[in-house]
Design brief:
Elements (H helix, E strand, L loop, with lengths): L3 E5 L3 H13 L3 E5 L2 H11 L3 E5 L7 H10 L8 E6 L3 H9 L4 E5 L3 H30 L18 E6 L3 H10 L4 E6 L5 H5 L6 E5 L7 H10 L8 E6 L3 H9 L4 E5 L3 H32 L10 H18 L4 E7 L2 H8 L1 H18 L5 E4 L4 E6 L4 H17 L15 E7 L6 H17 L5 E3 L5
Parallel strand pairs: 1-2, 1-3, 3-4, 4-5, 6-7, 6-8, 8-9, 9-10, 14-15
Antiparallel strand pairs: 11-13, 11-14, 12-13
Helix pairs in contact: 2-3, 5-10, 5-11, 12-13, 13-14
This protein binds 3'-deoxy-guanosine-5'-triphosphate and magnesium ion.
Protein name: diguanylate cyclase
Pfam families: GGDEF, Response_reg
Catalytic activity: 2 GTP = 3',3'-c-di-GMP + 2 diphosphate
Amino acid sequence: MTARVLVVDDVPPNVKLLEAKLTSEYFDVLTAFSGPEALEVISREHPDIVLLDVMMPGMDGFEVCRRIKADKVTAHIPVVMVTALDQPSDRVAGLDAGADDFLTKPVQDLALFARVRSLVRLKVMMDELRNREATGVNMGWDNVPSTELEINLPADGSILIVDEQERVMERIARALDDVGELTFMSGGDDVAERAREKNFDLIIVSLTMRNTDGLRVCSKLRSFEETRHVPILVMVDDGNTKLLVRALEMGVNDYVVRPVDRMEFLARVKTQLRRKRYADKLWENFHMSMQLATTDAVTGLYNRHYLTSHMETQIQSADRKGKTLSVLMMDIDHFKRVNDTQGHAVGDRVLKEFAMRIGKNIRGVDLAARYGGEEFVVMMPETPVDWALMIAERLREEIADNPFDVGLKDGPLNITVSIGVAASQADETPSQLLEVADKALYAAKEGGRNKVVVADRDG
Ligand code: GH3
Ligand code: MG
């Protein structure tokens, strides 16, 4: 995931250091050396996240943060305060100013990347939600129930805490008192299994339990359908970097180091809960607009009109941010044969099942539409073409490897799909991009069907 990060500090070597670190992880870095300059860069460049030094002459970090959060246009941009290690009071002041997270100096790589990524993921979802609502307005649906466009969905929810130490759990309970409903589990081999049974909004796991392998719990949580998208926050002991790296690689969303600072813990928990809220909202919104916009009774997917109208906004926003939008153009192979041999009603059932499988295999920010009879398009914001290719391959396999059970007495039907993949280029219109993807789809058909082909942009 690439993102544009603005680094603000009045000490040039500090800026250089963070810039070098972030650039090495493929973030795009903007810089500013004072509060007023930061505000100017923000209003001009719309960065995805701001790393803000607290101590600056003139306008300090708190004031900059307050101004970012007070302006409707910039309030949704996540702000990370960079504070001196020995200033816990800064954290309280930072929270009051509306900061989303903290880093302490000297900034450690692991903390930096974990926090930046976590907040960028949150912002991607928030942006998508807003774009979709803008599309709804463009299409003249005055009656679309508007989800809160305000930046702050409440950060509360149902939290599971997994730790063996009673003392720790008691302290956590006190810290999270008014954040949500708490459930405690004191470890055991079946923790992850038990966690599946309830809809948690956040799971906090200790990685230093004696009788339970916390990492294993996390890896199971990531593999179960029910808990795959639930944010995980882990607690580790200071200095146990190896364990932490493995946890982050596994897809754990954030971490806190023991002894846990109460304010910091609270901020982290709230960020994760808010992110979950947005993800849920996106899904809700997805289903709602689907019902409102769809003229396609068969699959329940977005129609062509919605797709192209939304894609226009998306391509513009990708251009502005210097990011890539990818599309998959998919067409069921020899679908006419299904109709001819099994009848139109069975054909419809295949289309329905096909649409459902697409839905299951894409992210909440992606958008699936029925483009024509048995042609479907998936649009994926902020997705480079090689990821898109990977997702297309996964979809192709999912279709080909699992015959469609549409209630025939001869058993399930073998279905395959051909897919063309294309990534947007600057100033392209939706129809140009779709045409490029369509050419790739044609090549996949020519190449024998049940294939994925990436558009050849040179030829
Ligand atoms: P190819 O592999 O080249 O894509 O072959 P194909 O048979 O899938 O392609 P073709 O374009 O020749 O046929 C598409 C068929 O899809 C023809 C049309 O009757 C059928 N179709 C289109 N919309 C619907 C629908 O809503 N329901 C059903 N049952 N069939 C549909
Ligand atoms: Mg076809």
